[in-house]
Amino acid sequence: MNLFSLKEAAKQALSQTEVNFVIGYTKGSYGFRVAPFFAQNEAEVEKLFFSPLCDLSLVNYLSLEKNTPLEKFGKSPEQKIGIFVRGCDSRAINQILSEKGIIREELIIIGIPCHGVIDIKKLEARFPGVLDQARAEEEDGKYTICFGDKSFAIKKEDILSDKCKHCAYPTPLIYDLLIDGKVEGKDDRYEDIKPQEEATLGEKEEFWKNEFSRCIRCYACRNACPLCYCENCILERLSPQWVKRSVNPTENVIYHLSRAFHLAGRCAGCGECERVCPVNLPLMLLNRKLEKDVKSLFNFTPGIDSEQKQFLTTYDLKDSEEFIL
Amino acid sequence: MSHFEPTIIAFLCNWCSYAGADLSGTSRYKYPANIKALRVMCSGRVNPLMIVQAFRAGADGVVISGCHPGDCHYSQGNYFTRRRFILFRKFLEFLGIDPERVVLSWVSASEGKRFADLMEELTDKIRNLGPLKNFTPLETEARGEINDS
Amino acid sequence: MRIGVYICHCGINIKATVDVAQLSTFAEKLPYVKVARDYLYMCSDPGQNLIKKDIEEFKLDRVVVVACSPRMHELTFRKVLESAGLNRYLFEMANIREQCSWVHQDKKSATKKAHSLLAASVHKVALLEPLTEKEVSVTPTVLVIGGGIAGIQAALDIADAGYKVYLVEKDPTIGGHMIQLDKTFPTLDCSACILTPKMSEVGNHPNIEIISYAEVADVKGYVGNFEITVRKKTRYIDETKCNACGLCVSYCPIETPNPYNLNLSKMKSIYIPYAQAVPACYVIDPESCRYLLKKECRQCEQVCQGLKAIDFKQKEQAITIQVGAIIVATGFDTFDPKGKPEFGYALYPNVITGLEFERLVNSSGPTMGEIVIQGKKPKDVVFIQCVGSRDKTVGNEYCSRVCCMYTAKQAHLVKEKIPHANLTIFYMDVRAFGKGFEEFYNRVKMEGVKYRRGNPSEIYKKGDKLIVKAEDTLLGELVEVEADLVVLAVGLVPSKSTEEVIKLLKLSRSPDQFLLEAHPKLRPVDTASDGIFLAGCCQGPKDIPDTVAQASGAASKALILISHEKVKTEAQTSIVNESLCRGCGFCVAVCPYGAIEPKMIEKAGEVTKVASVNDALCKGCGMCVPTCFSGAIQQKSFTDNQLLSMLSVLGEKNVSF
What's the ipTM? Predict the structure, then answer.
């Protein structure tokens, strides 16, 4: 990862008068943590970086832009935002663009071809209690993790995020500037959901009952998801009330089922929902299942093109008639 | 132990399926009283998430019935229903809800007997599957209380 | 909230199976129900008066009738509410007859279900809102798109009824394909002879305005109020001045292929499509005229000194017209046999289409009616049927309906002009279904025309003859027939202008790609869009009598619409809650009527896009509602709230009855 090109790209974006800030990553306050950062000038650009530790998505801020916390940066009708974007992020942006949720002209997209990010939970499990700011580098299928005066070599697949293991679009599909060379995507056969698909109905029921009984309905998954940007989420509304407020297995299932279905044909596979869940619910299983079915039944992949038609607002005369009486 | 009788909610489109169901009645065909119909103007009006709402309300099975493809009174509603339903059914199965409990059928206004036969078959099938256990109905609102307004 | 519930016995139809008295007691206990009654026949006059009286006495504001199907009597009871001063949409009907007492045998379970259906209706009616239909005024004029026989007939019928018609035709003259035909089956009427009087009538009719050499460019509006923009191409000749004397033709130095003779002959650059053209006005072809291409010549202008009809400065015009109804009569094109390369259409000049044959045999055609090919009269003529029809390999599975008969007619015409010719017709089936068709087919067979069952696989040249190779399936042997002339009975496909009109009017297509009618049996001239009707081959292949009948049908439908001053629109339409709408356009994409449009409004200090429903276009289907993630768009009388509240009751097992 050419950090110099990355910073130059950020500086180039900032040099445009309409750009007030570039949203990127900076080292977190301790350990393996990475934080989002809004660089407003060349000096602040120096704080930006990118490494395999950058596991979070920044796309949410584009939608949140409308809300107050960012207003302090000043807002004008011609305002543009610069943003660091990995492969999955670019698909989220494409999908939001195709839904007219943001305007292309308001973005300066700095594309980072991604070699995969580390699952911080797995890393912290290996090295609990690390407070020194850590670094991570990738080379030849190995990660080198450094903190304090120690250095460790770990096989990539041991701590790679699950979502990256089958990523078919690591290179951003939409960008204004691309840092580094493109990365080949993987052939995604949806092997990760196979065991779940092949379980019996009873096993499936049991599995989800156990999982959803842990859900505390904190709504972190919904808040972190870049594609959950409706100002009026139906999961919160009282009239009509699709999900009741009570936290019990029935309502929890309805919550997650409804949210996942609203993401059918829209989810970009960024995995933020699973990453932020405080009780480690396997939420990506739901999204992956829908993604697989949408692809195999309707030959549709979201987020490829910002002008794409939506999958749920189109139909094919030859759509499957399986199971229809 | 009392014998289990399933509750099946049927979303029927006004122009085809509801008319077909009416024809069942006019022709005096018989099917079980487990089927309760909810009239919509087009099967395309039905949000798949309503299936889950029906389950939570106590239904053991749900039917969505519309016009045959190509015959929709509004030209394309049933194509959307078809797309949404196929995906949703597979998704319900993934979550451990028996997909046999959710049925999409095409019934035209002239298919009175077929509607009755379908409802009979479906009731038998769901009776054999037993009561739906995935959703515990909330303590139902006291009988007669009107829901949100 | 004061609800009245009325349970009908329907004689014994309901009462014999459902305990109506128990229902009544149950209904009284439901919240907001002020009165609950059961009665013998709610739809009868006394029954209706019962409701009316109660509305007054108990100051009811909602009514539920628990009886037969709403498809039966919803309208009846809505009128009762209206006559009592209540909004007719504050009404709900529970079906406990067609869908309960008539289909269930067990009284206990039928009664229990009736309770559930009643409660669900009460829940829904409590959430209903008063609605009003809109009334829109109707412009009493009609646009007919297409000046072939279908358009001509429709225009004449409407004009004779006393209404104004705009007839827009893309060619410089009306007449369509019918004018290109020679004699028509089965009566052998001369096509032009029966058509030209009608064309003349159209040209002279005070109520018909022909806009020729023009195309519909834009359509805005809705039923009763369409605003049409017509793009009139330039003839470079003033229609009001030209008297069709034809002097200019002899002075024009340029020759160009004549499309009305299917390029089998030439015409001058300044031309009139044919002698009987309506309007009788010449046209200058911009693709070949020397002045328009190279700024030389202008002979025609000089010769037309007396009338000064030629005007090279003429520009394209955009004409705007207001109409109340539209009839689409854009007709057909013939299948291009280049799609069947085995027949050698592009290779051999003596392989021609059925339409080209019509021009050959027509006395006003390129060979003055003599069937002459490559300078000679053909001795052996082979006809091949079903070219481009009933053929999945070219994507046309349908039968084009007219080809069997026109081939028989063409064979007859050859026999008439060349009595000793050898004629063979290769066919798959012969469809002679209409009035006089079977008799005509038999006559043709008696004239010595050989019908051989089989689809030829190939045509190749041998010396100066063509050889048509086929399997005669009745004989079970391969045959190779010599031919001097091969006529391909090409099928009909939707015309190119039909494709354009589909985009403008947002029409749907049947699987065979022709325009889709509203109902295949009961509404063959309506489309799903109110105010737009179909006539002729644009809706499907058909012959002249069927076309004329359908055109009169479409005219009658259009007249029904425009003979009223106002038309009511649907009341149970969709409506957008602008504060919830995020302007994603999902609802816009699914609406089959284009009834939802983006609208810019100010929201929270910003100008933003939201969806907006045109009540005049919305038909109340509700398919937009599930597409909205925020629930911003709802269908009146079928809102999510209302349906969910019904679900909560219908699913309840624990409600004791």
Answer: 0.92
